[in-house]
Design a protein that fits this description.
This protein is mainly α. Helices cover 71% and strands 0% of the residues. It comes from Paenibacillus aceti.
Amino acid sequence: MQDIMIMASLLSFLNVTLLAILVPGGPIENRDFSKLKGIVFWGFNLLLILLGITSFIVCYLLLISHPNAIFITQIIAVLYFIVYMIDLAGIFPKSPTKMSKPLALFEVINASMAVFLFLFVTAIGHVGI
């Protein structure tokens, strides 16, 4: 039972790590977001930061088998998926710089990992572990 929760925690950690490597100006994300101003820029960044911090907290909650860990992880997985899908669809954030092929590939992989995380913890919840 504890082994499965450790695996869920590691999957959550992998998701936050995959998000972190996509930081603008980093090795993969090279688009220019200077046109995003004020509340839009800071709101989006705050969402991503809170998503990352909450993911680390969820890693711990999964390790201690907190009663709400599965539900919170499901929410986080859905948020990861939404973030990647709106970016891949070109909805937000908009940039004059086109998304590179490696970035698009990483976002598809990351979105897939978010789906996998959701399905994994949902299965745990249904089994009752």
